[in-house]
Specification:
- About 80% of the residues lie in helices and about 0% in strands.
- It is mainly α.
- Helix 4 crosses helix 5 and helix 6 crosses helix 8.
Amino acid sequence: MDEQNKFYQMYEKELEGIQPCTREEIEELSEALEMGDQSVGNRLIEGNLEQVIEIAKNYADQGVVFSDLVQEGNMALTMAVYEYEGGSFLPFAQERIEQAMEAAIQEQKGSDSIGEKMAAYINVMNEVTARLTEELGRQVTVEEVAEKMQISVDEVKELMKTALNAI
C-alpha cells in the first residue's frame, strides 16, 4: 500500500466522528461568520475537512507528498474561515485551498531546481579540480579552483561543504 493510501485511510478514520457540512449548513454558518460570530469557525473547518482531501487528490503525484498537501489545505481552510468577509464561502475556501496546494508544489519544484543547480556546480568543481590536479601534478588550492571556475573562494568552499554533507 502506498503512502497516499495509508495516510488517506488513517485520516479518514479520524474524520469518521465528524459530520461533513451540508450546503445549507455552510450557508447558515457562513452567514453567522459574516455577522461576526467567530464561534461557528470550528464547525466550518471541521465540516469541510473531507473537501480538502478531495481537492488534494487533484494535486497528487505532482512532487509533494499527499499528507503535506492535505496539511497545506487544512491550514488554508482555517485561514479562509478567519479571512472570510462575505459572499459564497465554498468557492472562497476552495480557491484558498487550491492556491496553498499550488504554492506548495511550486515551492517543491523550486527547491528541486536549486538542488539540481547545486549538483551541477559540484560536478563542474570536481571536474575542474581533477583536471587542474592532473595538469599541475599536485593538489590544487581552493583559490586555483575558484579562479578557474570564475567564482569566489567562499563559493568554492560552500560547494565543498555541500558536497561533503551530501556524502
